[in-house]
Structures are given as structure tokens and as C-alpha cells.
Amino acid sequence: MNTREIESHVFEINKKNRAEYLTFPSFTKSGLVRHLFSTRAGGVSEGIYASMNLGLNRGDQHENVIKNFECIANILECTLNDFVFSDQTHLDHIRLVTKDDSGNGITRQKDFFDTDGMITNEPGIVLTTFYADCVPLYFLDPVNKAIGLTHSGWRGTVKQIGKKTVEAMQSHFGTDPKNLIAGIGPSICETCYEVGSEVAMEFKKLFPYDFQEILRKNDAGNYQLNLWEANRKILLDSGILEENISTTDLCTCCNPDYLFSHRATDGKRGNLGAFLGLL
pTM higher than 0.70 for the full model? Predict the structure, then answer.
């Protein structure tokens, strides 16, 4: 699949050498950050990992994954040691990242764990999180020059990890949510994401008055879950202005040749990456 087959009104679709990647215009226009969301195109991995696999723990050849990260580093004009990897376990822990964390997970062993969200106000660090259906959340405070990058699956969404990221930025950087620019990145759409009544009940508790906008009952008696809208509502509730939120229109599961999808491939896949760093 190539860019001619993918259309988006939310993202700019970019190409450098053979690699294709997505960017939010609102983040690019700020002039304050380097960022991207990867696609499958332009890497060196093969088979189920073809070709831009960014998962070091998926069973791919280690040297191929490192070459893929070197390609991303070239696009972002950084080094591998600038990346700081999350340690995603579907919890709601947010870590304040500093230069001391540089290279965490790629050029040295991880030394923090159970971390699905990261924030920083230090330039030169590239926050890095991983996906294959879950929701990436990007945050930029252009006033205090601070950023956040958060992984939000259904468990993280129920825990309102997006709102907790905003609160962490308020606490550490004095962020006013009204100034924040936010992006909800490519992930699984409502049509593709069927869940059972137990998961649906968690969202009904979280959205008691408007859960119909989040959940749609299907003919099988299960529910179609709209994680995009759930996270958008959580970000609005955190104080971010509606006009400052860019919400994805690209589904990982609908586009498994272009974006890795766990559900579409029964787990036989690589990882996509979200990257965000202050200049």
C-alpha cells in the first residue's frame, strides 16, 4: 500500500527516502517540536514484520529493528541515544523524563517500568511509545514549552490516562490546559473494535450520561467501542479546547497493510511508533 491509497483530513502524509510517516499539521506549525507516527512503509524487516517494524520484543531480527530506528532517527534528525522508550502495561502511570533517561530501552537497558505516559520540558529528548491498535495521545504546551506522549488502550482510557497526563503537565510545568495542542493518533476504529459487556460496563460508568456516543450495540449483542471519541471527551473534560484537538481518521485495523494491527493479524505483527521531542 502507498500514500495514494491512504487519505486523511487530519494528517500530513510524508515520505523520506522509502519511509512514509504521518504528522499533525498543528504540531508542525508550532515550530517547537519534531514528531511523527510511523507506518509500515520503508523499513528493512521481512515477513509479518514488513517492513518498518519498531518492536524490539516482537520476535523480529534485532539488527533489522535497529536499522528501522536509525531510519526514524534520520527523519527526526536525532540519534538513537535521544530516544526514551515507554514500558507499556496498560496502566495510568506518567513519568517525568529528563536527559538522564536518554537511550532508555534502546541504547541501554530500561530502568523504569509500568509507564504508559511520559512528559518532559527538556529539548533533545524524543519520547517514544508503541502501537498496533491502541490510541496514541500527543500533547504540546507551546507557552511553557513542554510535551507529553501517552499510550491509551481501553484500560488506559477507562483510567483517563489522557486527563492524568494533562494533570501531570499542570503539576510539573504549570501548563494551562486551554493552551494545550493535542493529537489523537491512528488506532482502531469503532467499526473494527468489538468488545463484550464487561468492557462496555466500564465505559458506561465513565460516561453515564452520554455513553451512547461511545458504545453501539451490535447484532451479536456485543458492543462497538469508539476509543477516538472516548479519548476526545476525556481531553475536553481535562480543559483542552475543542479546536486544539486533532482526532484521527485512520484506523489501524482497516489498513493492516499500511499500519500494524494486532486485531487484524491475530497478534502476528510488528509495532508502530509515536515520536515527540522538543527542539
Answer: yes
